[in-house]
Amino acid sequence: MGTSVTDVTGFAAQWRRLCDGLDWISRVIVGGAIAAIVTITIVAVWYRYVLNAPLSWTEQVCRILFVWSVFAGAAVLYRQMLHIIIDMFVLMMPKPVQNMLFWINQGLMLLVGILMLAYGLQITIGTWDQTFGALEITPASFYSAAPYCGALIILFWVEKLLDPAKRVPSGEIHL
């Protein structure tokens, strides 16, 4: 069912390779961020309760890592079509209506990606010279996750145009 990896050629195949690389980078960001959050939390508890010397930066860093894991993970889930969807009524409709609703949904996703990219860049650039928290780093360090996610959604949306295989869920689905 659908198009296999070998069925796309030319520009579509190159676009898929680009998206595969960006997907891999995003998965590394998610996995690395979660691993770092766990490690930092363990270290923070050790310092606070065993050494009686709490670290002031752990909450700020964990917040930044969490934001990045959520936004990068959202883009990956969009690409794999594994984001939350309630399709009970859509599945009862005729195939042409289902197809129309799919593309309306995809159009809205494109709009979301464009808005995240545009406004995320605006906020990121606007806060670049500000600092906050114990580390006195820029809030752009976590605001920049939004335009990253928006750009990926746009790229993955184009992939869905070029490659019909990317229009169906892939990966493990647990209901």
Task: Describe the protein in words.
The protein is mostly helical. It has one domain (7-167). The chain contains 6 helices and no strands. Helix 1 packs antiparallel against helix 2 (58-80) and helix 2 packs parallel to helix 6. The longest helix is centred in the N-terminal third of the chain and has 41 residues, at 10-50. Mean pLDDT is 88; it is low at 1-5.
**SSE string:** HHHHHH
Number of strands: 0
Low-confidence stretches: 1-5
Q: Give the assembly state of these chains.
A: single chain
Gross morphology: elongated
Helical content, roughly? Answer: 55-70%
Q: Based on helices, strands and strand pairing, what is the structural class?
A: mainly alpha
Give a brief outline of the structure.
The chain has 175 residues and is mostly helical.
Question: How would you describe this structure in keywords?
Answer:
175 residues, mainly alpha, 6 helices, 70% helix, 0% strand, elongated
